[in-house]
Design a protein that fits this description.
Shape: globular
Radius of gyration: 19 Å
Largest sheet: 7 strands, parallel
Helix content: 25-40%
Number of helices: 10
Order of helices and strands: EHEEHEHHEHEEHEEEHEEHEHH
Distance between the termini: 34 Å
CATH class of the largest domain: Alpha Beta
CATH topology of the largest domain: Rossmann fold
Structural class: alpha/beta
Length: about 300
């Protein structure tokens, strides 16, 4: 049992991680500014602070709540938004992470779990499947901010002996996913279909991604409490799925029989990305358990039961 602070714990992935931590008898404190997270996602057994990760007062909370582990999910998550406003992206993702690390040092935190992006840190020209020992050559501001965060995490570990685990996620999907932005394609398609609208597929639907279910990701975060110390670990499935295949699975599950509207290519879209997860199996003793079809079915049922599309 550990005392854990989860930043972004009211968000899509963070709230699922909080639930899994609590299920495993840990004490959880959530820190979230609710800029994209939702109050209804907050586990009632967790203590909640509405606060920005750039706030210097976080060190007082860490001491007051006797926090041992920081799990850092809070972030500006949109690649296009990072391109439009790289300064804001850096303020949240780089300076926010740096502030947390500084507060962690002041509060003698034992472990720092940093969420990075397996979809962007390896760059557009990575040899696939991407492995953790490949160069991290991000080519958009969001990816650059995640790479920079990783460097700061390692610096604080070397300088102040804060143990860390870096989790590089592929495309995470599942219940509570926000149906906006390029990463939310599963929830975007499902929500469009629930409204009786026809989804749009950009660039011919040939973009290849690695879709991993949020429940499996939450399990990886539990294992990261005591395994894979001072390592960067890819969290995905290693399975290639293009958008056309994804759409056909969603149509099958939702009994939707309209062809998607074909849209143009989007600037900045990486044509293909999927991850080698050998190290997750080796160091975390983790592998995904949820097949894509089963995970999409769970996601569809969630949105079906949540105000006909989750738009509260």
């Amino acid at each position: 049992m550990a005392n854990i602070l989860v930043t972004g714990g009211a968000g899509f992935i963070g709230s699922n991680v909080v639930d899994e931590y609590i299920k495993n008898k840990n004490k959880v404190v959530i820190l979230d500014d609710l800029s994209s997270g939702k109050e209804e996602n907050i586990n009632p057994k967790a203590k909640f602070y509405k606060m920005d990760i750039r706030d210097k007062k976080i060190s007082k909370i860490l001491k007051k709540e006797k926090i041992e582990v920081i799990n850092h999910h809070a972030a500006q998550i949109s690649v296009p938004d990072s391109v439009k406003n790289p300064v804001f992206d850096a303020e949240v993702n780089i300076l926010g992470t740096l502030n947390l690390l500084q507060c962690a040092k002041e509060a003698n935190i034992k472990r720092f779990i940093f969420v990075s992006s397996g979809g962007t840190v390896y760059g557009a020209n990575a040899k696939l499947p991407a492995t953790e020992n490949m160069p991290i050559t991000a080519d958009n501001p969001y990816g650059i901010s995640k790479v920079t965060g990783e460097h700061y995490v390692r610096f604080f570990s070397n300088q102040y002996n804060i143990k860390y685990v870096i989790l590089r996620y592929s495309n995470v999907y599942g219940p509570r996913q926000i149906p906006h932005g390029e990463a939310g394609v599963v929830s975007i398609f499902i929500n469009k279909i629930l409204k009786g609208e026809t989804p749009i597929i950009f660039g011919g639907g040939k973009c290849i991604r690695d879709y991993v279910f949020v429940g499996d990701v939450a399990r990886a975060n539990v294992l990261a409490l005591y395994k894979a110390t001072n390592k960067a670990i890819n969290i995905g499935t290693g399975i290639k799925t293009d958008v056309n295949k994804l759409y056909s699975i969603i149509c099958e599950i939702t009994n939707f029989n309209k062809k998607a509207i074909m849209g143009p290519e989007r600037a900045g879209d990486i044509p293909a990305n999927f991850l080698d997860i050998s190290n997750a199996k080796k160091y975390l003793n983790w592998q995904p358990e949820t097949r894509l079809k089963d995970g999409i079915k769970k996601t569809y049922e969630f949105f079906l039961n949540t105000n006909k599309g989750g738009n509260k």
